[in-house]
Amino acid sequence: MTPNTAGATATATGAAEFRFFRARVRNTARLGPTIVRITFGGADLREFAGGGRDQSFSLFLPHPGQRAPVLPVGAGGGWFARWRAMDPAIRAVMRSYTACEHRPDQAELDVEFVLHGVTGPVRASGPASRWAAGARVGDRVVLLGPAVEDNKGVGFRPPPDTGSVLIAADETALPAVGGIMAWLPATVRARAWIEVPDAGDIRDLPTTADARITWLVRGSADGLVAAVRAAGWCPDGAYAWVAGESAAVRALRRHLVRDRGFPPGNVTFTGYWRRGASEEDLRAAISRAR
Prior knowledge:
By secondary structure, the chain is of the alpha/beta class. It is 20% helix and 31% strand. It has helices at 79-85, 127-133, 174-183, 224-231, 246-259, 279-289, and strands at 12-13, 18-32, 35-41, 56-61, 93-98, 102-103, 108-114, 140-146, 164-170, 189-196, 210-217, 239-245, 267-273.
């Protein structure tokens, strides 16, 4: 197979729920010591159909020295198996992210990156963190995102008439929490616990809901799991959304279901990352389990 570097076109995947979008970096801005927001732009992004809340998508990045991310020829149906078969040193780096603000009239999409392991202005661990720390205007990327607003990339789906929402997350899920808070109606009570690496990463999360947010700075207070356990907040019919490091997410789900009595269907949980493992490792583990 001969890979190409032209990115992907409007090729539909599955039942036309997702498609590929070509884009370039238009702007970068540091939001805190460990978070950078990158604005992507390109005509394709006018058709990006973000569903809000925790809308996720896949981002393909080039390796150092490549002008654009390398994807298999004809990146349509079956693209994932063909991408996996490519040389990891050549094929595009693939990571999952949450869509932040989308401005279709300007063909722009904001995405936030956590700079894991940053020790200087442009040094970070992991290929996506390193790319984000050194991103420049004009850098090329490809997104695999939603072509319709009601899509499987949206996980936050409380049952109808939910009156209370519990949110527990770390910095990797902060963009999703922001999207959820902006989406919640004024009739909902929301309680959120968010753990971040540095106090400088704390920010306002606008919402019309009756919301109370507890910020936890890693290493200087109880961790996320301990803080949620200690709170004991469990109104009748509450819905919980938990995202972040996989082990913490699993521990919180067990606590909410076994100790607090949350119906399993009222707890949405997502391991955004696992300590000591890359996203490729996680995807491979999921593939093996199927």
